[in-house]
From TrEMBL:
Domain 4Fe-4S ferredoxin-type: 331-360, 571-599, 601-630
InterPro entries cross-referenced by the UniProt entry: 4Fe4S_Fe-S-bd, 4Fe4S_Fe_S_CS, Fe-S_Ferredoxin, MvhD/FlpD
GO molecular function: 4 iron, 4 sulfur cluster binding; metal ion binding; oxidoreductase activity
PANTHER family: ADENYLYLSULFATE REDUCTASE, BETA SUBUNIT, L-ASPARTATE SEMIALDEHYDE SULFURTRANSFERASE IRON-SULFUR SUBUNIT
Keywords: 4Fe-4S, Electron transport, Iron, Iron-sulfur, Metal-binding, Oxidoreductase, Repeat, Transport
Protein name: Methyl-viologen-reducing hydrogenase subunit delta
Amino acid sequence: MKVGSFVCSCADTCDIDLEAAREGIEGVDVAASSRLLCEDGLPAMEQVIDEYDLDQVIVTCPERRVQRKLERVAEAQGVHPDAVSFVDQREGAGWVHDEAGATAKTARMVNARQAGLEAESRPQTLTAAAGDSVAVVADPDTAAALADDADVTLIADGNEFVDAAADLDGVTIERGRVVDVDGRFGEFEVRLESRVTEDCISCMKCVREGPDGAVTRYPVDIDPDAPDGAWTDVCPTDAIEMDGVQRTLEFDQIVYPAANRRTRGGRVGFYTAPIDAATISAVRKHLGGIEKPAHLDLEMDVCAAGDSSQPGCNECVEACPHDAVERARIDEVAFHEEACQNCGACTSACPTGATRLREPSNERVAREIEALLRPTDEEGGWLLNRSGSDVESPIVAFVCSEEADDALAEYGRLAAAGKADVKYPPILPVRVNCTDTVGEAHAMHALACGADGVAVVGCGGDCLHSGPDPKAELVDRLNRAGRDLELGERFAFFAPDPDEPGAFVEAISTFAVDLEPSPVSAGEHEATGGIDDGRERPPFDSHGWTLESVRAILEHVDPDREVIRGLKDFGRMAVGDGCTLTPTCSNLCPTDAIRRDEETATLEFNHERCVNCGTCEEGCVEDVIAMRDGLDLTLLPENRSDADDPAWVAVHDGEMRECNRCGKPFASEGTARKIQSEVGDAVAGLVPGAQGSVFEYCGDCRAQLLYDRGNG
């Protein structure tokens, strides 16, 4: 696989040093740059793809219309469209950071994208036929409602969707006003007219210079009544055409609330107001087919949900906001994948890796974090030069791909258009489906790789999945763990409001300023995604991945505390005096973290394996087991080198009863006494000639005594 990267400054509207950005990109066969890649740079791009025989291309371009253009260029040179990947160097970097920060961040994001693509999961989908394209005119709510089932294009019809409450992440947005609709079901043609051509790159110059209210930002378009003037000459791509240009788009179905009945006629697949649930259902019914991704990898044989009618771990059921997981039985959970909304809540909560998000997978997230924080040369690299002016305090930001991502993009557009002064530290983004995707394993891995801080950037009160402050509890736990590790508080949750950039800028800036440089060296740690505890486990399970990260952190810190609190996937076992050494807990434990030694009457516990599911505590017949969360460093095998079997520690020392006849230990004293107290009266005098009661004999000798009595 030959990979090339292309960096663009978007007509010099982005504060990016193109040469320095190229030098910071690693792991590719060629890194090229252009001031305006989608125009003057296209011939050079074609030449580079051909000369280096590239199979995969990473381009810095956030504009979807331009992305399609670049995909066509790459495809013409033999690169599959799916092998063209894009990075936002503009709204998320060049428009909101200074040149050094934007340059460093751009290079890092390209490196992270390359690392992530290498770990990308193969897609698994439900097959779907063609014929699912739907045009929705000026109705963002309907567009969002159909986006999961159809290829939706939202036609602006003169409107601006910067402040749309609906989730338009999966929707293509087209500028222009509808002039005419022709055709029939499966062959509709929509003719649009606009004052901005397809050459527009959304650089915001016309928005900045144009008359107030005459130019929309998203999508960029000009009101037909806008006056001519010198401001129309500012476009770097000559995309302004005040006389208007027309184009025709094709769709299978049309949702056009403002159209009249005459326009619609009796055509099937053409819908006008009122648009309600029945309309949405009708559109879906007439789709030629859909393609729904399989979001989860399930490996239920490692699930800790319980056993033998004992409820165990219930994390996924409690975490899922869409009722896609249920307790099918008291000791089993069931997943309804058709209801899954790809938020990742169950996967970040699951300690054993029984459920894992396919994309982004934990491994992909890990590789992107490592690439974002990796120095670029043996001396530490300019990207991590904290004494200079670029990324002085590297902060890994897990950014929700829904409203939070949109808000950050809007901040960039506001800054570029001169509508707001938006400058904040160059946080290093890892795009996730939802902040619910993020768990303690992801955050601890970022610290293990040398991040000064970890920001969880989500939707806050408007979260489509989990409601207000979905990660407040996680942040509190992680900061407790950070304090116990002598790292201090390095985690925070942010909910950017697109209408209040100042609040976000102040909050993230304060967070960055308050962070001390991490004692953990950057660029040294590369995760394997697990631990070697003698058990086979799914890759990058939360428990194993977290423990691996903590061990990497402990190479650089020396905490005073023995127990690291706040890490919920680790359990500490305490056993009371009433233990009779029955095999219940060891049989129930889903991770084999408990074992019985009958020769020594000892119950042993493996802290390294325990995921704190609570099954042993719930199933204990004597009710003497108590579990507490937290990682106890003294119980890890590397800290018990003087023990014969350092991974195991005795949590209960009993006494074995020896057989009066053969001398063989056969049961713990506690078990024997308990059985004797319950049924002793019923069998008293059963073998009059025995030395002591029948409970003082092993099973073999007890049987022999009864046989001798019966034949005496």
